[in-house]
Design a protein that fits this description.
6-stranded mixed beta sheet, single chain, nucleotide binding, oxidoreductase activity, Dihydrodipicolinate Reductase, domain 2, alpha/beta, about 35% helix, about 25% strand, about 350 residues, 2 domains, NAD(P)-bd_dom_sf, globular, Myo-inositol 2-dehydrogenase/D-chiro-inositol 1-dehydrogenase
């Protein structure tokens, strides 16, 4: 069933679930920088958390998600709750007839994402997943260049994420590096190699930043090699110890040229003095990609209002998660794996 457009041309009424770090950022963007959306309500099970965020933004705070979903002014829901709750909230919002934007990952198993796709399809509502890099100007321009044939046939691709650090290693769930961090890079590689599917995934990971937490399952450094069915080879890497700031980059090398994306500095400014050369580098994702975050939320609001599928769908979420799950299987086996085989054999949540 195709998404059904709400009537009228007023800004799309948004309810947000999850008032944590990324939820707080999204709520403020919706309220102040997304003109085709209106923040109606915020829900969070922690007493006072939703009201503290919603009140200054002119919205209502709830501790009961059901109250938010029952509000007729809420036409669509942005899910920014804890990862384990994503899949259930996607289904609940769909059953309430609301369009759904879900932060990545949209589930912790392919079965969970499949249920979300089925629920939103049956309800005829939009389902978008938060792969914000697609909405960053430089990544969008790179994809346009690939589509235009500017670099010929993609042969080598690279995507990396280096995070400023682990504030509390004990609070990081196992496999975070693949499921929450590198999943952005996997989507980027799929985005920049359109039409291609991964046929082999090999991941190497270790605890180099916080080795004392390795036995608890925390891996903080990883390199992934992916072979695609169009012959292209890709690498993705991540680290949680970029002391200089939040670093995101990409590259496409093709038969006719090369694209280089990102590089760290927030502004084209370098200061050289007696202490050396310095550049201004963002300290986090919301600081590096404010326009991209606003852009993806504007796209979601527009898709809900226009009754169409958004630019990034549940299918995209499934493809990226399939690579992440293949990485986990590869680390466990010590060798390369076929994503199709992993998808056919893995069952339930990844622990």
């Amino acid at each position: 069933m195709s998404p059904v457009a709400p009537t009228g041309t007023a800004p799309t009424g948004i309810g947000l679930v999850g008032a944590g770090r990324i939820g707080s950022s999204h709520a403020r963007l919706i309220a102040t920088r997304v003109p085709n959306a209106r923040l109606v309500a915020v829900a969070d099970v922690r007493p006072g958390a939703a009201s503290a965020l919603a009140g200054p933004l002119g919205a209502i705070g709830h501790t009961d998600v059901g109250e938010l979903l029952a509000d007729p002014e809420v036409e669509a829901v942005v899910v920014t709750a804890v990862t384990e709750a994503h899949a259930g909230l996607v289904e609940a919002a769909a059953h309430a007839g609301k369009g759904v934007f879900c932060e990545k990952p949209a589930g912790l198993s392919l079965a969970e994402i499949d249920r979300g796709i089925a629920a939103t399809t049956e309800a005829g509502v939009a389902f978008q997943v938060g792969f914000n890099r697609r909405f960053a100007a430089e990544f969008a321009a790179a994809r346009a260049a690939v589509d235009a044939g500017r670099v010929g046939t993609p042969q080598l691709l690279r995507s990396l994420t280096r995070d400023p650090g682990l504030v509390d290693p004990a609070g990081v769930p196992p496999w975070t590096i693949f499921l929450l961090t590198l999943i952005h890079d996997f989507d980027t590689l799929l985005f920049l190699n359109p039409g291609a599917e991964p046929v082999s995934v090999y991941a190497v990971a270790d605890a180099l930043v916080a080795p004392g937490f390795k036995d608890a399952g925390l891996l903080d450094t990883a390199v992934v090699t992916i072979r695609f069915d169009n012959g292209a080879l890709a690498t993705a890497e991540a680290s949680f110890s970029a002391t200089y700031g939040y670093d995101v980059r990409g590259e496409v090398f093709g038969s006719g040229g090369r694209l280089e994306i990102g590089g760290g500095p927030r502004r084209q400014l370098a200061i050289s003095d007696a202490d050396g050369r310095h550049v201004d580098t963002p300290r986090g994702d919301t600081e590096l990609f404010p326009e991209a975050y606003a852009g993806e939320l504007a796209e979601f609001a527009a898709a809900v209002r226009e009754g169409r599928a958004p630019a990034v769908t549940g299918h995209d979420a499934r493809r990226a998660l399939s690579i992440a799950l293949s990485c986990i299987a590869s680390v466990r086996s010590g060798g390369p794996v076929d994503p199709a085989v992993v998808a056919a054999t893995i069952d339930g949540r990844v622990r």
